[in-house]
Amino acid sequence: MVRILSAAVAATLVATAAHAQIKVGVTLSLTGPAASLGIPEKNTIDLMPKKIGGLDVTYIVLDDASDTTKAVTNTKKLITEDKVDVIIGSTTTPNAMAMIDVVAEGETPNISLGGSARIVDPANPKTKWVFKVSQHDSLMADAIAVHAKAAGIKTMGFIGYNDAYGEGWLVEMKRSAETAGIKLDPIERFNRTDASTTGQTLKLMAANPQAVLIVGSGTPAATPHKELMGRGYKGRIYQTHGVGNSDFLRVVGKDGNGSFLPAGPMLSYESLPDSNPIKKVAKEYITAYEAKFGPRTTFGGHAWDSYIVLDKAVPVALKSGAKPGTKEFRAALRNALEGTKEVVGVHGVFNMSPTDHNGLDNRGRTMFMIKDGKWTLATK
Amino acid sequence: MDVSIAALLTQDGLTNGAIYCLIALALVLVFAVTRVIFVPQGEFVAFTVLTLAAFEQKQLPGTVWLSLALGVAAASADIVAHRREPGRMLRAIAGSAVPCLLSALLVWGVFATGAGWAFQVIATVVAVMAMGPAVYRVAFQPIATAPVLTLLIVSVAVHFVLTGLGLLFFGAEGARISPFTTVSFTFGSINVSGQSLLVYAFTAGLVIAMAVFFKVTLFGKALRATAANRTGARLVGVSPNFAGRLCFTLAAAIGAASGLLIGPITTVYYDSGFLVGLKGFVGAIVGGLASYPIAAAGAIFVGLVEAFSSFWASAYKEVIVFTLILPVLLWRSFNTTHHEEE
Amino acid sequence: MKPRVLVAIVVALVAAAPLVAPPFYVTLLNYIGLYSLVALGLVLLTGVAGQTSFGQAAFVGLGAYTTAVLTTQYGMSPWVTLVIALAITLVIGYILGIITLSMGGHYLPLATIAWGMSLYFLMGTIESFGGFTGITGVPPVSFFGMALTQESHFYYFIWLVTLLALWCVANLLDSRPGRAIRALKQGTTMVEAFGVHPGRMKTAVFILAALLACLSGWLYAHLQRFVNPTPFGINQGIEYLFMAVVGGAVSVWGAVLGATLVTLLKTWLQDLLPKLLGEAGQFEIIVFGVLLVILLQHAREGLMPFLQRFVPSPKRALPEAGDRLQHRSMPAAGEPVLEVNKARKTFGGLVAVNDVSFDVKAREVVGLIGPNGAGKSTCFNLISGALDATAGSIRFMGQELTKASASAISRMGLGRTFQHVKLVATMTVVENVALGAYLRGTKGIVASALKLNRADEAAALAEAMRQLQRVGLAEHAHDPAGSLPLGKQRVVEIARALAADPILLLLDEPAAGLRYAEKQQLAQLIKTLKGEGMTVLLVEHDMDFVMGLVDRLVVLNFGQKLAQGLPEAVQADPAVREAYLGV
């Protein structure tokens, strides 16, 4: 034990004494309710190259247990103890929101993986330091509204998580549906570990809207889905990009066939045309991921995109002459991230600006359909 | 709301209530014998489903590692406790650690040989049952005489460990298993699956069996006596450690059976146990942690309230469920005489 | 080392920490301070008063949400919202307290889980509270225009509040209401016999714990500057209980120790495990749980009592005995004190006490005896107020007792002991005796917490010492009551009853379970008290013990009065001989 400890201490000392290197702090929800999102993100961190812009990179990964207090503590630790140059994370919207003040005070750029557009709301001056590589919920909600409208859908039911994810989606979907002239009713909520959603399903069935949107992440989103199908619902079912993993397909089984979801193009890069630049990038990442950790998930893809934008921004920041580990370097990196232009990631193409710290456009969303238990590009 | 919706909601409430009820029964059992409020009971249910689901997907169940870890922990506890008496050490290990270690082997064997469904079910049930005595040995036996509050906190710590291990070995996503029977019956407009009838029948049978066992049989009474008076129980020939191991084995067995029953109807996650356990706990407390039939009624009440409130106001479901419990608790509290501890 | 020195060292360490510790440790210490406040409430509520609560996190949320909503949406000053938050908590705590604290047994912990869950989901569902996503932009607290935005500044504020709270709670526990709170775990009968209203006392403690939690929440909101429901869920409620129990829920410092241990352990595991296992994340909770199980297996009362064993408690000087409290006017010899007239008690069809009449006059020692099952204890309970008579009358100093509560009866001047000794084992002998003088003091919770009770407190302890000298146990004053042998514990009970300045002393089977020599000493003590002019009613099973001790005997059998009169005459009564000896 003592020997391991002293070895660990020695290793740390050596590491700190080494030449200029970049430190990337990561806080993710590896345990708790958002663990199914956080774990593939962490796996992806393991895949990240140990050199960026010719410099060694150290990744310091912390678990925030899906808790905002812990996310803030982790962020403070990464900034004050580890003196990282950039922070990736956290996984969920509330955690990401809680971190905004801390990274602004610590003047450390933050690449967030949460869903809500509020994380990088340009109206909040503190978000100057925050970037976000996952698609805004609003972008995805618009995709669903447009797709549903094209199919002549006028009424849509909603059943979503009784948490920040469901809440964020509800706000965006209400807005998108209104724009598309779709009536969103009834609105139901459920919990991730609910054993059944019969009550909500019966209410949806009684109103019998032309489509139902299910907002959940991973396998729990299959519970209302299966229940709707089991009770003979004939309308169209939409899911969100939160279900973009193979576990969902496994649990939802054949009940999933024929349902739609908007997601980043990576989910089924195989079906993209070769002309799409995202295909090559996604293939590279997914091949590496699947060889090591099993089937792809869209969440892992967000983590990879954070690496891709960093890989482009770090060399730009280094050109300013600032040394990693300094306040100047962090500011330069922030500027470089803000200047991200036409960077191709696995979820889309990033074009950031002072008023847009996300930078994904319509190339960042693709409508998929589940067919024979597989993701396929959706037709109308 | 029309009659058919009410009937469907009642059916859903009964099914969920039955699940809570099974947890409540195990909680009452464990508390009545050991004074431990066994928070991790739900984990046994989850582990059963996740193990069987792994078999069905032709993956090696994480249970192998879980059982191995628990077995090694139990064995080390016995080795430390009886380091000067090799004979007793071996006997103790045989009672606590060996079942776990053997069941790890069994699960691995069933997976490696690709044995059929029946073997998978048996291996799963055996493995989960073997976890019961190991958990008791490692966590609770050394502090069996501690205050209820300390036991409860240890119980919460064990819950942390087991869900942590569950996440590590089974992953964060949920699973379902294939049903025992696909038969279904139609009563008027209501369609009842054979699987949910199995759930009802098993739950009702278990309530009666437990009530009879502890009220009528001498052995049952002796087991209950160990909670109140460990020395007295030893005098009439029941070793408190044996009683503890036995009731944890039974609790794990109930957990495994619950898992087999509900796995096909609902998706189960590594951390499903907590909220389900909490609602089972409500039932158990309504029964005063003593009465099996009242605990069962309490659990089913929770299930029904939940079903109806998820129809009327799904966003406020938990608020309604947990607020409605308060008057029930008040009423139960006023109708139970509290004996002041002398 | 004296405890005072230890406290001084802790305070000095706290003051110096931000100057020497790395900034991240200041962050951690801030959280430790916040958690300590909540755990402190739990020490009081759960550890001392014996009421387990899982719902404290909801009160933290109440404090945090009140200030977050009012400051961000209505632009109020945090100082105003602090008052509002505390007021809201007071009201909600009072309502929840009277509803849930009346539940006994396991109903209470579950009830706390239930409203904890309800409040959590309510916080998330109300849209104007920011929903599950939360509220950003909570303003910092300012002192005279200086905003506490820096963590190291806020640190001093948090720890000032925390140390003040510790000081107040420690003062409280070492005072008149504090002794009553510490006695609550013994059940309600005992405290009621000294005029304590257990329900009110529990509610007060519950509110106090809720206020401490609310204060912590208010600080949290202004430290974090962001509020959402997750930190106030049931998991966090469990974690607070964890801290209190792990630290040792019987001592105020246990709260700080528990909060520190849990917080630091998690941080260190987060640092250490990836280095040992080469893998981040999922192992922390597992190792954390395992370590806690091991810790509680070796220190089941928590860490503080475990550590206290290594710090020998210093020899304290005995408090000075004195007679500074008000006395009642005592009746003159021969005046009737207790008149029992056709008292009757039935349980269903069973008549336990059947129209029994007898009386006790001032400065008399009367024995109420009878074989097992004669109805002595029921009769005793009717007089002490533990049971209400079905019919008949019992008058004490001319006032009717039959419908009076136990605490009203004690107020009238009736002091009692218990058949099964009910001392607070962890309190010292002198503290136990001082509890007897509860009704002769006046200072309440607030005055005691702020140490505005010095004169009151000194007088109560002086009185307790005086009674201990009277019964001959002065040298045991600072021993824990639980460490004395049974015979001496009985005597401590008598001293405690005497401290209430009673007109009539009711002794419930004082000789039961005593050895011969102990009985002799007890008899001697009762004779001495009689010589001092005390009026005593002695309920006893042991006839030999009461002979030569009492002026008169009343004999019960099968719920009825069998005989009464002078001891020798009663002993000679054939009916009594038959009842006792079967001849």
Tally of distinct domains of chain B: 1
Order of helices and strands of chain B: HHHHHHHEEHHHHHHH
The biggest beta sheet of chain A is recorded as: 6 strands, mixed
Could you give the order of strands across the largest sheet of chain B? 1-2
Describe the 3D structure.
The complex is a heterotrimer of chains A (380), B (342) and C (583). With 380 residues, chain A is of the alpha/beta class. Chain A is built from twelve helices and 15 strands. In chain A, helix 3 (68-80) runs parallel beside helix 4 (93-106). Mean pLDDT of chain A is 91; it is low at 13-18. Chain B has 342 residues and is mostly helical. Chain B has 14 helices and two strands; from the N terminus they run αααααααββααααααα. In chain B, strands 1-2 form a two-stranded antiparallel ribbon. In chain B, helix 1 packs across helix 9 (218-228), helix 1 packs across helix 12 and helix 8 crosses helix 9. Chain B is globular, with a radius of gyration of 20 Å. A six-stranded mixed β-sheet of chain C has the order 10-11-12-7-13-14, sandwiched between helices. Chain C has a four-stranded antiparallel β-sheet with strand order 6-5-8-9, with helices on one face. The radius of gyration of chain C is 28 Å and the shape is elongated. Chain C starts with a helix and ends with a helix. Classes of the chains: A alpha/beta (380), B mainly alpha (342), C alpha/beta (583). The interface between B and C is large, with 47 and 44 residues.
Topology:
The complex is a heterotrimer of chains A (380), B (342) and C (583).
Chain A: H1 2-17, E1 21-28, H2 35-47, E2 51-52, E3 55-63, H3 68-80, E4 86-89, H4 93-106, E5 110-112, E6 130-132, H5 137-150, E7 155-161, H6 164-179, E8 183-190, H7 198-207, E9 211-215, H8 222-230, E10 236-239, H9 246-252, E11 260-263, H10 277-293, H11 298-319, H12 327-338, E12 343-344, E13 349-350, E14 366-371, E15 374-377
Parallel strand pairs in A: 1-3, 1-4, 4-5, 5-6, 7-8, 7-9, 9-10
Antiparallel strand pairs in A: 2-3, 11-14, 12-13, 14-15
Chain B: H1 3-34, H2 41-56, H3 63-81, H4 86-96, H5 98-113, H6 117-140, H7 148-170, E1 184-187, E2 190-193, H8 194-216, H9 218-228, H10 230-235, H11 240-262, H12 272-286, H13 292-312, H14 317-334
Helix pairs in contact in B: 1-8, 1-9, 1-11, 1-12, 1-13, 2-6, 2-7, 2-11, 2-12, 3-4, 3-5, 3-6, 5-6, 6-11, 8-9, 12-13, 13-14
Chain C: H1 3-20, H2 23-48, H3 56-74, H4 78-100, H5 107-125, E1 135-136, E2 142-143, E3 146-147, H6 151-173, H7 176-183, H8 188-192, H9 198-224, E4 226-227, H10 234-247, H11 252-277, H12 283-298, H13 303-308, E5 336-347, E6 350-361, E7 365-369, H14 376-384, E8 391-396, E9 399-400, H15 406-412, E10 414-416, H16 429-436, H17 445-449, H18 454-471, H19 486-499, E11 504-508, H20 516-531, E12 535-540, H21 543-546, E13 552-557, E14 560-565, H22 567-572, H23 574-581
Parallel strand pairs in C: 7-12, 7-13, 10-11, 11-12
Antiparallel strand pairs in C: 1-4, 2-3, 5-6, 5-8, 8-9, 13-14
